[in-house]
Amino acid sequence: MNPSESAKSPRLFSPYDAPMWESIAQGCMKLQWCPDSNEFRYPPGPACPVSLSMEYEWRPISGKGRIISWTVFHRTYLPAYPAPHLVVAVQLEEGPIMVSHMAHSDLEHIRLDAPVRMVYVDHPDGYRIPSFVFDAVA
Predict the structure, then answer these.
(1) Are 22 and 52 part of one and the same domain?
(2) Long-range CB pairs of 108-113, under 8 A, 24+ apart, other chains included
(3) One digit per residue, pLDDT tens: the chain, 138 residues?
(4) Distance CA 15, CA 44 (A)
(5) Number of structural domains the chain divides into
(6) Are residues 106 and 130 in the same domain?
(7) Domain match, 51 and 89 both
């Protein structure tokens, strides 16, 4: 094993989030949707927090949302996320709030309620993750 392989973080899936990560790898994120409450949920889990139903379907999401908060990490905690690192909280059109990141160069244009869309980027450990960019068409 070469040194770069040993530094990679292993992918660990729960019984509830593996389909989500598979959809991200395919470039079309899906979330659990509850037929009883008609609500999407994130993060994935065993029961709907609204109806408590254990029934769900995996449905694609639009990937569009609005920034509701952000912060900048000025210290590197993980090598895959060098400082400065812009972290955003985005309320998806479908309802759930998702925490992800944006390019640090976007910081000068960031504002509350700014429209964003999801893109998929390659993580240094060899898998894809969702990220956000400004949505000029919103």
Answers:
(1) yes
(2) 109/134, 110/67, 110/70, 110/86, 111/67, 112/67, 112/68, 112/69, 113/66, 113/67, 113/68
(3) 444 444 566 677 888 999 999 999 999 999 999 999 999 999 999 999 999 999 999 999 999 999 999 999 999 998 888 999 999 999 999 999 999 999 999 999 999 999 999 999 998 888 899 999 999 864
(4) 9
(5) 2
(6) yes
(7) no
Residues 102 and 52 in one domain: no
Q: What range does the domain containing 87 cover?
A: 62-138
Tell me how far the alpha carbon of residue 25 is from its chain's centroid: 12
Q: Is residue 6 part of a domain?
A: no
Same domain, 130 and 74: yes
Residue 116 domain-assigned (yes or no): yes
pTM for this prediction: 0.88
- Distance between CA 50 and CA 38 in Å, rounded? 9
Tokens (6 digits) for 116: 């964003």
